[in-house]
Amino acid sequence: MSVQHDPVQRADFDQYMVPNYAPAGFVPVRGKGSRVWDQSGRELIDFAGGIAVNVLGHCHPALVAALTEQANTLWHISNVFTNEPALRLAKKLVDATFAERVFFCNSGAEANEAAFKLARRVAHDRFGPEKCEIIAAVNSFHGRTLFTVSVGGQAKYSDGFGPKIQGISHVPYNDLAALQAAISDKTCAVVLEPVQGESGVVPADQAYLEGARKLCDAHNALLVFDEVQCGMGRSGELFAYMHYGVTPDILSSAKSLGGGFPIGAMLTTSDLAKHLAVGTHGTTYGGNPLACAVGEAVLDTINTPEVRAGVQDKHARFKTRLQAIGQQYGLFSEVRGLGLLIGAVLADAWKGKAKAVLDAAAEEGVMVLQASPDVVRFAPSLVVEELDINEGLDRFERAVARLAQA
């Protein structure tokens, strides 16, 4: 039985919603695989993936089945009790990673909030209150809570909200000498994205992550990897730390973990996890049966050799074609990224025009993202079909051609 809804339109956003977003002029209403349809019935190919969330595209049968089954079983029980989907997903994450303990929450910001609180609590318990400093990277992004936005290295997101959380400093990304100069015995954690997402899809250098690991060990600091955007198969490995062979002490995950259903997770070791004893941290919805049932289906579906190999193959297809488009129209100076998190860096003549490229692409029927005004970002489904890749990039090229003529 379908429910009758009151009609709504894009103008309703401007009338009823807080104006902190500026959404596109069209309203998507339905999705299947890597295709989306708007209110007028127009079809678009989705290379945005809900900002690296729709890891299996739209309405993947395995996720629909898991959600439907759980929706008919148990929705919410609170953390006064535990539940079977949470226990199953936690066990599978532990079996698949370095981690021995999992904390579930609802978003990437919450996963990072838990990670940063854990790092400070461990240092406090082991070394005293002086050891509380956190070092993060310039242009990093770790969420929008007051703590996570302070750790994130972008003043435009953290300024104007009163006094900032103290004891946080920022060093240039991929600059090991700068990290070495900044770290001290007061440092409790170094926080890094293995691939910087929001600031332009910048992968870490191998030597940088290896060096950061050694520096943390030398100073009794914890290495925290924010894999909210680059994790869950997106790099071609289940998590990007596996691609580099550098193991963190704490890892945050979200976005793709739920394939579109809100869930976040902090992964760590038993030795560190024990510092979050009963009552030290919590969340009402974290470990919700609906979210965990979907997360388990996501993990089961993507953590296979076939899907991981497919990500590498698709990366090559995207990169080759984007380089060709970039060359033909003088659009890109570089195409970079890992797996299916790809950043196409605009050439000097096009600097600052990522939003114009995004808008033109949408007009041609393909959804892409920006990662800073100078980088066009692609974060499609990990199982996007070859037909959709080719058709989507054809549409993207038409958009670029039209912009170039204009």
Note down, in words, how this protein is organized:
This protein is α/β, with parallel strands linked by helices and 406 residues long. The protein contains 15 helices and 17 strands. The chain folds into two domains: 11-59 and 305-405, Aspartate Aminotransferase, domain 1 (Alpha-Beta Complex), CATH 3.90.1150.10; 74-302, Type I PLP-dependent aspartate aminotransferase-like (Major domain) (Aspartate Aminotransferase, domain 2, 3-Layer(aba) Sandwich). It is 40% helix and 18% strand. The strands form four sheets. Strands 4-12-11-10-7-5-6 form a seven-stranded mixed β-sheet, with helices on both faces. A four-stranded mixed β-sheet has the order 1-2-3-15. It is globular, with a radius of gyration of 21 Å.
Topology overview:
Layout: H1 11-16, E1 28-32, E2 35-38, E3 43-46, H2 49-52, H3 61-71, H4 84-96, E4 101-105, H5 108-127, E5 133-137, H6 146-151, H7 155-158, E6 168-171, H8 176-182, E7 187-192, E8 195-196, E9 202-203, H9 206-218, E10 222-226, H10 240-244, E11 250-253, E12 264-268, H11 270-273, H12 289-302, H13 305-329, E13 332-338, E14 341-346, H14 354-363, E15 366-367, E16 369-370, E17 375-378, H15 386-405
Parallel strand pairs: 3-15, 5-6, 5-7, 7-10, 10-11
Antiparallel strand pairs: 1-2, 2-3, 4-12, 8-9, 11-12, 13-14, 14-17, 16-17
